[in-house]
Structure formats: C-alpha cells, structure tokens
Amino acid sequence: AKEQGRNGFSFYDASMDHFAQRQVLLDSKLRQALEERQLSVNYQPILALNTGRIVGAEALVRWRDPELGWISPAEFIPLAERNGLIHKLGDQVLAQACSQAARWQALSPLQIAVNVSSIQFRHGEALCQRVLETLDRTGLPAKCLTIEVTESLLLDNHKDLSATLQPWVAHGVGLAIDDFGTGYSALGYLQRFPFSKLKIDKVFLNKLDTSAPDRSLVEAILAMARALGLEVVAEGIEHDWQAQFLRQRGCHFGQGYLYSPAVTAEEFERLLHQESQH
Ligand code: C2E
Ligand code: CA
Ligand code: CA
Ligand code: CA
C-alpha cells in the first residue's frame, strides 16, 4: 500500500505481506511441530527396473498441520533452511527412517535413502557423527543407508568436505548426488567427492519421447555414470515407455508414480508383503 493508485505496486505489496505473514505463521507452527514430533516420514519405493522388485525406499518428510492441512516440503524445507530448524528436522527424519528400515531388514535387505540439506553440512563433522550414532542405536547396517545431497552442497564452498565425509565412506554409508543435471554441477565434482550413486532428475524424463537432445543427455549421463562406477537411480518415472528407455540403456534403478508415490510406513510394508507372495 506504499504506492497507492498504482495497482501493480499495491498488488505486489499485498502479496509480499501475505507471503511474509505465512512465513511467520509457518515458522512458529513448524517449531511446535518439531517440539511435539508431529512430522512423519513417507517412503517411495525404489525398484530394480529389470525385475520390477523393490530394492529400497526414499524417505520423504510429511507435515500435516491441524489448521492448515498438508504443507508441502517444497514450502517448509526452504523455510527450515533459513531459520535453522532444518538440523532438528533432519535428525528426526533420519531417526524415523533408520529405525523403520532396520525393522524392515527382517523382510528384505532394503536400502533407505535420506535427504540431507547442504545447510546441515555447515556442522558437517557433528552431522557425520550423529548419523553413525543413529545407525548404531537403530541397528541399521551402514551399507543400507544412502544420504542424498544436491549439487548446492558442492557449491557451498565447504572446505574439506571430502574429509568430512570420510567416516561415512569408511563405514559404508552411500552418498548420492540428487537432482543431477539441474544445478551447476561441474563434472569434476563427481570425481572429487566420494559419491556412490547419481539420481537423474525427473525433468529429463518428461520429453524423452519427443526431444532428441533430452534423449542424448540421459544417454550421456548414463554413460558417464558407468565410466565412473556410479549406480544410477532415475526419478519421476510416470510412464512405461520411460522405464523401457532407461532399462534398455543400462539404468538399473528407478522410482516414480508409475510404480508408487511415497506412502506411509504401513502401506510400504504391505507392498513388501505383497511382493514376497509372488
Ligand atoms: P526430491 O528429493 O527430489 O524428492 C522427489 C520428489 O519428487 C518428492 O516430492 C516425490 O514425492 C516426487 N515424486 C516422486 N515420484 C514422482 C513422479 O513420478 N512424478 C512427479 N511429478 N513427482 C514425483 P516431495 O515429497 O514433495 O519432496 C519435495 C522435495 O522436498 C524433495 O525433492 C526434497 O528436495 C525435499 N525433501 C523432502 N523430504 C525431505 C527431508 O526429509 N529432508 C530434506 N532436506 N529435504 C526433503
Ligand atoms: Ca531426494
Ligand atoms: Ca531428486
Ligand atoms: Ca528435488
């Protein structure tokens, strides 16, 4: 309302107020939700593309506020990164995911993937320690855990990141580069850091049928991953032709709505039981 009479400006101001108000509201609600441990974790199956069997799951945080309803992680994760709550949030997700995955080991030797924000790496050594403690406490074998990080981690100018990550590598915790190709990745990063997996972002899968450049890009990523000895997981597979394309070009793993969205722990367990009967 600073620029009265200029509709464009007053509209802009009003929407900024609205955004700021929502942030303040979400800030206090998220604080409380973490205090009361109200966040839950859903699990999206990761499948072996050649057999169609579930080999793992990605843990994805879920938050339902009694008044506001479901709030998307795309909204509250960036907020948690700004206000510092991401550390507590990340710890709670990790603890839930690891104890759940430890229980599932009796059914199947599943891999569990947990997203870790680059902000959490600002206290990288403490983070590393807590992850190893969580594995210890839950009894989940280190080789069953993969930490997913995005390329922004590599840009964030963390000195000695490689050294920080060494304890995980030594214990056998996997490290995946998430959303590969969407950021500013220099390929050199892939060699400098101890990644074991690469996740192809869903934006590259959308136009595989119509876009020759997208096809070439996915083929190039797969060839490069093979050369570097990285496992590849394709995300956002929604159609069978996408799965077929990927399978034919040596992409071994995938996740997406074609198979299943992220589901509750109970539903995921039902999927595992269903599978063991076939
Ligand atoms: P992401 O790590 O790239 O996770 C994949 C997102 O794609 C998830 O969204 C998932 O539900 C969605 N997805 C899966 N299959 C399909 C598909 O076939 N088509 C489409 N269109 N989408 C699909 P979600 O759960 O809303 O999470 C959004 C983002 O929020 C995640 O992207 C991740 O960056 C962040 N996030 C979620 N949980 C956590 C967490 O515990 N910690 C941190 N640091 N970030 C998290
Ligand atoms: Ca991820
Ligand atoms: Ca991703
Ligand atoms: Ca993403």
Automatic annotation (TrEMBL):
It comes from the Bacteria. Residues 23-276 form the EAL domain. This is Bifunctional diguanylate cyclase/phosphodiesterase. The chain holds residues 490 to 767 of 776 of the full protein.
